[in-house]
Amino acid sequence: MKEMWNERYQKEEYFYGKNPNRFLESVFGLISEGAQVLTIAEGEGRNAVFLASQGFEVTSVDFSEEGRSKALKLADERKVKLKYELCSLENYEFGEQKWDAVISIFCHMPTQLRQAVHPRIEKSLKERGLFIIQSYNPEQLKNNSGGPKDINMLYTPEILRKDFSALQWIKLEQSVCEIQEGMGHQGLSAVLSGVAFK
């Protein structure tokens, strides 16, 4: 998987573009001012750089060297600071009561990894800390606009409620929308969007 992502990110063009995810852009105002924010599976940095430009202290994690290189280049371009840790989610130390917000944008994990990582994210949130997620749901298998073709890597509200049993969901809904994010996400998309707090 790491080799696939490095190959995808090694081109000069940003695979998912440089603009933030629109759902994240619509809800980031819920994050407390000056918050410590973690973005997981950050790739080329579009969401982390956006959040850093809003005044948050942002740490990102991903296992792709090519993604990290492009994210730091984008941060320099936008004149923001970004801490970017090179690590797989399987091995990453999330900590406990550490983050004011954790952001997961199109981070799709196979079942076993997801069941290991999501509870660690839950523990890593401070009291009143936010978890913000957008992913594809199983209906996305009917579309060719992006995302994995393995149903076990696509999320439902039931999966997230079970994985994050200690969180209260402000929003958790499935919808169909048009997504234009670089060459990676293009067209009608079946998504799951959620915001929860601890």
Shape: globular
Summed over residues and divided by their number, the pLDDT gives a mean of: 97
CATH topology: Rossmann fold
CATH superfamily: Vaccinia Virus protein VP39
User: Strand-and-helix sequence, N→C?
Assistant: HHEHEHEEHEHEE
User: Which stretches of 5+ consecutive residues score pLDDT under 50?
Assistant: none
Report the total helices. 6
End-to-end separation in angstroms reads 32 Å
The oligomeric state of the chains shown is single chain
The number of distinct structural domains comes to 1
Q: Strand count, sense and closure of the main sheet?
A: 7 strands, mixed
Strand order, largest beta sheet: 3-2-1-4-5-7-6
Helix content: 25-40%
Strand residue percentage: 25-35%
Compute the CA-based radius of gyration. Answer: 15 Å
Number of strands: 7
CATH class membership: Alpha Beta
CATH architecture: 3-Layer(aba) Sandwich
Structural class: alpha/beta
